[in-house]
Amino acid sequence: MGESKDIEMMTAREGEVDEIALQEAIEDERVKTQQRQTGGTLERYINLVSAINFSFLLQCSWEAAAATFQFSLSNGGPASIVYGSIFAGFGTTLVATSLAEMSSMDPTVGAQYRWSATFAPKWNRFFGLMQGWITVFAWICSCTSNPALVSNIIVGMVTFNNPDYVPERWHVTLIMWAIMIIPFLGNFWLRKLLNPLEAVGAICHVVFFIVSIITLIVLAQRSTAEYVFHTLTHDVSGWSNPTVAWGLGLLTVTYPLTGFDGVLHMSDEVKKARVRVPRSMITSVVLNAVMQFAYMITVLFTIGDVDVVSADPLPIIQVYYQATGSKPATNLFVSMLAIIIFVSFFNVFASVSRLAWAFSRDNGLPFSSFFAKVNPTLKMPLNALILIGCCLAILALINIGSSTAFNAFISLPALGLYISYFFPILFLFIRRISRNHPVPIPWGPFRLGKWGPVVNLLAMAYIIFIVIWMPFPGALPVDGVNMNYAGPIIGAVILGALIDWVVSGRKRFQVPVARHRPDF
């Protein structure tokens, strides 16, 4: 009772240090000493502005929606985009708020798998290991989606400017590999430059947004309000049921809002993480949800000839071209999308490498002792970063064997991330309503109070609804070409995690213990 109360009241204002904070300082130093002995420790260098910029830019919602809204044009149409954007904005904010409360208790790089291990009513080690595998895999796939989006934009622009060009699938793989090189090296040698790069990226994220909207409003032909608000497309992809079509169209507006937990996996490098990480997550989701909704409403009102737009592999190109009537102007606006998504790739790369490092530190991965090391000179998990780079290079090969790989790169990370969000919220909700648990919940500075159970319950309902639609194929009849492999792949990851648990994980994996530390 006394410990819980002290934890809740500590650090009420900056510079305040009480008895609990001093105890935490001792514990933090002990942990740092232990980490130096086992491979090093990370350096705190990310301030509040950088933390917010990190999440804000990482999501790049309106750019990702612009590059993927072909999914909604064939399923759901404008009704799915408009009302789905509102639905996704509120739902994702509930999810982010639930995770923000946990990040205030224990702002740790491992995040979801540590919280599952902490709050699970039983079998803590089992749920922690399973959650870790799902979260790490989901983030590796999420990291792959950035070069997939940029390469898709590049190929679309080349085709737009050179109609005789016939893209081969191996071309896309080579482009993806090329796109990975600079962010990899940037995280390797230029870690301290990530802060100013994030600031520039965040400015471009806002400026390009404003310029794009103004250009489309001033130059483009207007659609009717009837088309924007009352058109539900359910006769193009083969899915004739309007509800199913609307649900499938949610991919365009839900996928860009995932990944807000990226800053969580940088927690060991964020100053005053117990306060700043929750603020960063909630702020980035709200801002990106508003920007995505405003941009997509603008696109629908200025879409021009819908048939021409729908026929293009990258529809946003035709939206800008019909509005401006100029190929150079269209190239400029579409390049803006690629630039911001590319810059956000630096953040995604950094986040997933820290997550893999943390999971290895808790012996979650095979060969954990190797991947858990922190380079003492670079102050970063070099081996984990190389592991992620190799995984991305291998995953890019999928595009050579499947023409639907781009769909997998988009739907798979969204499905995996939503599953990773669900279980910590579920376990906290169970702990919250339990009256028999001997240990009180160690609340942090950010607490939902009496609204907590309601927010958690609504967040879980939203996740379940979204996860239902993610594995559905985008078109009928289903064959090997248009099959959505997201569900089977996630199933394979869960099966692999179960095998790992049986073979060695139950002996190898260590249940993480929350560290309530001061944030100086």
TrEMBL record:
Top-level taxon in the UniProt lineage: Eukaryota
InterPro entries on file: AA/rel_permease1 (IPR002293)
GO CC field: membrane
Membrane-spanning ranges: 45-69, 81-100, 132-158, 170-190, 202-223, 243-264, 285-304, 332-359, 380-400, 406-430, 451-472, 484-503
Single GO term (MF): transmembrane transporter activity
Membrane association type: Multi-pass membrane protein
Keywords: Membrane, Transmembrane, Transmembrane helix, Transport
Naturally occurring in which organism (per UniProt): Polyplosphaeria fusca
This protein's name: Amino acid transporter
Keyword check for Transport: yes
Localization, UniProt: Membrane
